[in-house]
Amino acid sequence: MDPQSPIHVSLRGVTKVFVSGLGRTHALGPIDIDLRRGEFFAVVGPSGCGKSTLLDVIAALTPPSQGAVTFEGRPIGNTVPDGVGVVFQENACFPWLNVADNITFGLRRQPVDKTEIEQRLQYALQLMGLQDFAHAFPSQLSGGMRQRVCIARTLVMQPRLILLDEPFGALDQQTRLLMGDELLRIWRATGATVLLITHALDEAAMLADRVAVMSARPGRILEVIETGWPRERDSQIVSVPEFGAITARLWTLLRAQSMQALRPEAV
Amino acid sequence: MALASAAGARMMRRTIYAHPSLFLVIGLLCLWQIAFWLVGRDALLPPLETILYLAGLLQTARFWGHIAETGTAFVIALAISVVAGLAIGLALGLNRMAAEVFEPFLLAGNSVPKIALYPIVLLIFGIGMPAKIAFGAIHGVVPVAIFTLTACSNVPPILFRAAAAMRLTRWDTIRSVLLPAALPDIFSGIRIGFSLTLIGTILGEMFGSQRGLGYLLMTAIGLQNIQVIMSVTLLLVLVAATVNTLLLAQDRRLRNPATPSQAP
């Protein structure tokens, strides 16, 4: 990753405290990170460390309790900024729409003309290998295919920042590796900045330019590790010795945190 | 011989699987005939005679007058049930706070035997059309409201997160995400509401009316006119079962949009 790239997303002193009838839960932060334009940034952390909350805050799906998030130099408000796409872990397909209508759902609400919508749809179908399923309904697709639909739905909006919240968490290991390859391909093809939230160390180590390791709750950034991979890469990187070293380094950092997260009083 | 009967049985089974409802109807008619043989002519009429008598009734203008009376009351009651039920259910479904306050009342209201309210309905509306409509509507409105409310709260939250991520306005989220996502359950509520409103309308006619199929039933009971009782009952069963079957088919289509009729 080119360290000269301009800052695309910036978090300063971001914290999140949830207040409920049971009291206050300090879920996150304070967190300071800068994502550079066009980089692939992954965040790993023990379960319950607030990494999904971090994504929600960056996406403006939930406001931070303190601190500020800026996207392309402008502070984000209380709606998802234009140019930001989000892919969730759960199946977020609309079951009453077929694949093509799901993919163009957001696009049809933008000032984009019909031929342009059709072109972007065809491109996304092709990129995600969904050409033969344009008229299928989500209930007829496997979990991996449904997640492709959700990714395609985000891609057609041509986001400059793609936020992925454990997008492959519900998929089996082989599908995850293949989807990882596709994600790298999409990242290179679109030039977008990617923020991937994951609990899978190997996924983070294989995909990202930089991996941030989060602590147990309240989640803070413990360390940011540069992987140093070339831009052209794929899942075969798992056989390179450096991959093992990076994964081992991530695990050393995470082990103590994960054990802390498993302690009963932390739950 | 054994082979032939085995093949025959297999063919029989295949025919039954191909037309399950048809064979259910045939089975019910057989049961009816058997029940007639058991209890005798004092209590029942056999299927064929009932159908012929009904066919005869359907050729008289007076009988059609009763049908029109019941039909009008029922259609208006159903419209009130659906519109008011949807309005209450959606208003509560869109407002979690209001839902928490009012849902127990709705459920309690649903468990009240509506017939206990009948004297009050009669006192308010008097004998005639408005009382029947009101009585039909109070049967239908609460289930439609409860189903609609439940349908709204059962929409997976992830769909709203996805809508927010695509920058939908609140109104667009309601129109393009909440309503289509809740539609199958709302439609089930309307289907249940249909049956209950029909029950309510007929009940209303039985006790406080001078026209309509319910009234006809009640007078026939007084006169021990088994032919009329059986014919009117058969007509009601036919109408209710037919409409319910159609609604059920539509229900299934909504639940699984991938059925051939909609997939290109």
CATH class of the largest domain in chain A: Alpha Beta
**CA-CA gap between termini of chain A:** 37 Å
SSE order of chain B: HHHHHHHHHHH
**Main sheet overview of chain B:** none
Class based on secondary structure composition and strand pairing of chain A: alpha/beta
Question: Overall pLDDT of chain A, averaged?
Answer: 85
Oligomer, anyone?
heterodimer
User: Most extensive chain contact?
Assistant: A-B, 29 and 22 residues
Number of strands of chain B: 0
Tell the overall outline of chain B. flat
C-alpha end-to-end distance of chain B: 48 Å
Beta content of chain A comes to 25-35%
Structure description:
The complex is a heterodimer of chains A (267) and B (264). Chain A has 267 residues and is an alpha/beta fold. Chain A has two domains: 7-83 and 162-266, Rossmann fold; 94-158, no CATH class. Chain A contains seven helices and ten strands. In chain A, the strands form two sheets. In chain A, strands 6-7-8-3-9-10 form a six-stranded mixed beta sheet, with helices on both faces. In chain A, strands 2-1-4-5 form a four-stranded antiparallel beta sheet, covered by helices on one side. In chain A, helix 3 (114-127) crosses helix 4 and helix 6 packs antiparallel against helix 7 (241-262). Chain B has a single domain (47-255), classed as MetI-like fold (Orthogonal Bundle), CATH 1.10.3720.10. In chain B, helix 3 packs across helix 11. Chain B is flat, with a radius of gyration of 23 Å. Chain B has eleven helices and no strands. By secondary structure, chain B is mainly α. The longest helix of chain B has 38 residues, at 170-207. Chain A binds chain B through residues 59, 61, 79-80, 82, 84-86, 88, 90-92, 94-98, 105-106, 109, 135-137, 139-140, 150, 153-154, 157, and chain B through 156, 158-159, 161-162, 164-168, 172, 176-177, 180-181, 183, 254, 256-258, 263-264.
